[in-house]
Design brief:
Blueprint: E1 6-7, H1 8-20, H2 22-27, E2 41-44, E3 51-54, E4 57-58, H3 60-64, E5 75-81, E6 86-90, H4 91-107, E7 115-119, H5 124-135, E8 139-142, H6 149-159, E9 163-167, E10 170-172, E11 175-177, H7 179-189, E12 196-200, E13 213-215, H8 216-219, E14 232-233, E15 237-242, E16 252-256, H9 258-272, E17 279-283, H10 290-295, H11 299-302, E18 305-310, H12 319-327, E19 331-335, H13 336-345, H14 348-351, E20 360-364, H15 370-379, E21 384-391, E22 394-400, E23 406-407, E24 416-418, E25 424-427, E26 440-444, E27 453-454, H16 461-468, E28 475-483, E29 488-494, E30 499-501, E31 503-505, H17 507-514, E32 520-529, E33 534-542, H18 550-562, E34 569-573, H19 586-594, H20 609-617
Parallel strand pairs: 1-23, 5-18, 7-8, 7-9, 9-12, 12-13, 17-18, 17-19, 19-20, 20-21, 33-34
Antiparallel strand pairs: 2-3, 4-14, 5-6, 10-11, 15-16, 16-27, 21-22, 22-24, 24-29, 25-26, 26-28, 28-29, 30-31, 32-33
Helix pairs in contact: 4-5, 19-20
The structure holds adenosine-5'-triphosphate (ATP) and magnesium ion.
Length: 621
């Protein structure tokens, strides 16, 4: 499994070759998965309507389980919760349980072309059920725990799901989440296509059983069963994801079966260089693509061992390092917000348990500010911090640090270099390519099989309008940034959030400075209209132990002035508005200070923050 090791120069060459001849580049990666029938053609057509690995047939669950019968005693997953209770699941268990779950889903009539929805916490059964959906060739949609009734109803209808798989309950941050009760209430009062609910019980349970329910424990075959995997054409949908909703209403996207997983497996080999016996923990909620990307489409594909954590990393300050120690975790893939949480919890978070086995932490979700990077390096000097910049629409890194295949320098604040197999540009308002060092819009010339199609968009009108019309010929990422003389990409924030104060300022530029103030754990910066141009408004999350005082706000203001940023307003807060995937929703703050429509808040993690923000922002001027 160990890959060859390249110099930065060689990686650049690899990347150039991929740009020149994407088909040969990806043909070479085709055998990262097993095929029932190999494709007849590598690529056909042009993005966004191209097809990859045409007329090839494969099955996701076959790749994840049947291929590993020779290592049946190896642990496929460890599960752990906030109380540090654990379970371990071998590859044999995984094989047997996926087959059992497939049998039950087949009995429920699930077949190729169907869309199956799932709402569960991070437990082994979520892996069994998801892979079982794929075994039958159906399309999987994982919904967040805790979406509002309205949002979930919309999504169930949008996907046209007939079957919903749930766990009766889940646990997070010391709270019990009664999933089954919530779903009952929704299905009893709203119109959805759901006909059957498959319920996985969590120990002793006291939920109601309705006519639509099938209790998994009651129908789960006792003995061994084998369900034939259904072979699926490369371009048929495997899964539907909704974007995070950071910049607007979430968009539903679907990914292919073969191209998507091939690109993912190559991405992780390059990013992390996983070794045969590595233990890999992905810290993410289930509804975010990160969880399935690791736990369904990579860890079992490569035959590695994964860690499933049911809970919230900030529940106890020592949680992170205790879990690393418990399993001897080698690789962590984490959302940016989780890394910020560790920093705000302080040294205890990374020093309570022994983290000496940990080699690498991969960041995804937002630009990792240099202060957080420095803190992680100082407190865990043996750990490499890696980065991958990608998006739900293109689940292959646009830029990243391919430490798994090469020796490249890390630059704090940057997402990394052009990833071999990707091709990005930075352009001005007119779509003209900008020189090195100039800030502009990040666009993509997609050359990987990881570009999603839009859901419910048969003639492609929506995908063109949403992503290809702003800069014709390019896929527009919606992000703002620049590239340096070594080809490193710096994502400075969302283009919608850019502040027009004299020059254009990306939100990360100011936020990176605010968080180096000793009292500040995290920050969000937005522009607000002034008579001429825009002013800068800062929301600073204050660490515990510091007073929320006028003096502190003034101190932060002068601290920023000394760093070259004239800031008009500084508000001290305890938390920021975030999406369920943990991203700061600056558009909400912007709308509130401008008295504009709030817009879509279907993925706002805790809507009670709206009132909180309103009252803070009206405190003073
Ligand atoms: P929406 O599209 O609904 O507004 P979203 O863009 O947050 O939400 P995702 O697809 O989850 O939805 O996130 C992709 C975005 O996340 C990227 O466009 C980029 O802004 C940001 N991002 C992801 N990873 C990184 C990273 N490593 N460095 C910088 N930014 C990142
Ligand atoms: Mg987006």
């Amino acid at each position: 499994m160990e890959a060859e090791f390249y110099s930065l120069q060689k990686i650049r060459k690899l990347s150039e070759e991929a740009v020149k001849d994407p088909e040969s580049f990806w043909k070479d990666k085709m055998h990262l998965i097993s095929w029932f029938k190999e494709p007849e053609k590598i690529r056909e057509g042009e993005p966004p309507f191209e097809k990859w690995f045409v007329n090839g047939y494969t099955n996701i669950s076959y790749n994840a389980i049947d291929r590993h019968l020779d290592k049946s005693e190896k642990v496929a997953f460890y599960w752990i919760n906030e109380k540090l209770d654990t379970r371990s699941i071998t590859y044999r268990d995984l094989y047997c349980e996926v087959n059992r779950a497939s049998y039950v889903l087949k009995e429920l009539g699930v077949k190729k072309g169907d869309v199956v929805s799932l709402i569960m916490p991070s437990i082994p059964e979520a892996v069994y059920m998801s892979l079982a959906v794929h075994r039958l060739g159906a399309t999987l949609v994982i919904h967040y725990l805790g979406l509002s009734e309205e949002t979930l109803t919309y999504r169930l209808n949008d996907c046209n799901s007939r079957v919903l798989i749930v766990a009766s309950k889940g646990f997070r941050n010391g709270n019990e989440i009664r999933i089954k009760d919530f779903v009952d209430k929704l299905l009893d009062s709203r119109k959805t296509p759901i006909e059957k609910v498959l319920v996985v019980k969590r120990g002793y349970d006291d939920f109601n059983v309705t006519k639509r329910d099938v209790i998994y424990e009651e129908v789960r075959p006792r003995g061994r069963v084998y369900v034939e995997p259904i072979w699926v054409e490369s371009n048929e949908p495997s899964t539907i994801y909704y974007t995070s909703g950071t910049t607007g209403r979430p968009k539903g996207l679907y990914h292919s079966t073969a191209g998507y997983v091939i690109a993912l497996n190559y991405a992780f080999k390059s990013l992390m260089g996983p070794k045969e016996n590595d233990i890999w923990w992905t810290i993410s909620e289930l509804g975010w693509p990160v969880w399935p990307m690791a736990n369904l489409y990579t860890i079992p594909f490569m035959g590695l061992t994964g860690v499933l954590f049911e809970g919230y990393i900030g529940y106890k300050p020592d949680m992170f390092s205790r879990i690393i120690e418990r399993f001897g975790v080698n690789l962590v893939w984490s959302s940016t917000t989780t890394l910020y949480t560790l920093k705000s919890l302080g040294e205890e978070s990374v020093k309570s348990g022994d983290t000496s086995t940990l080699r690498l932490i991969l960041n995804t979700g937002e630009p990792l500010n240099p202060g957080a990077w420095k803190w992680l390096r100082e407190n865990m000097p043996h750990v490499t911090i890696a980065d991958a910049y990608w998006m739900t629409e293109h689940l292959f890194p646009v830029a990243g640090t391919p430490f798994g295949i090469g020796e490249i320098p890390y630059k704090a604040g940057s997402a990394g270099i052009r990833f071999p197999g990707s091709d990005f540009r930075v352009v001005d308002d007119d779509g003209k390519e900008l020189q090195v060092g100039k800030k502009g819009y990040i666009v993509l010339k997609p050359i990987s099989p990881a570009l999603a199609k839009m859901h419910n968009d048969t003639n492609g009108e929506r995908i063109i309008k949403t992503y290809w019309s702003r800069f014709p010929g390019y896929f527009y990422t919606g992000d703002y940034g620049y590239m340096d003389e070594d080809g490193y990409l710096y994502v400075l924030g969302r283009a919608d959030d850019v502040i027009k104060s004299g020059e254009r300022i990306g939100t990360l530029e100011v936020e990176s400075v605010v968080v180096t103030h000793p009292a500040v754990a995290e920050a969000a910066v937005v522009g607000y209209p002034k008579e001429v141009g825009e002013g800068i408004l800062v929301l600073a999350v204050i660490k515990k132990g510091y007073p929320m005082s006028e003096d502190l706000a003034n101190d932060i203001k002068s601290y920023l002035r000394n760093s070259g940023y004239i800031v008009d307003k500084v508000y001290l807060v305890r938390r920021l508005p975030k999406t369920k995937s943990g991203k700061i929703m600056r558009r909400l703050i912007r709308a509130l200070v401008r008295n504009e429509e709030i817009g879509d808040i279907s993925t706002l993690d805790d809507p009670s923050i709206l009132e909180e923000l309103k009252s803070i922002l009206s405190e003073k001027d």
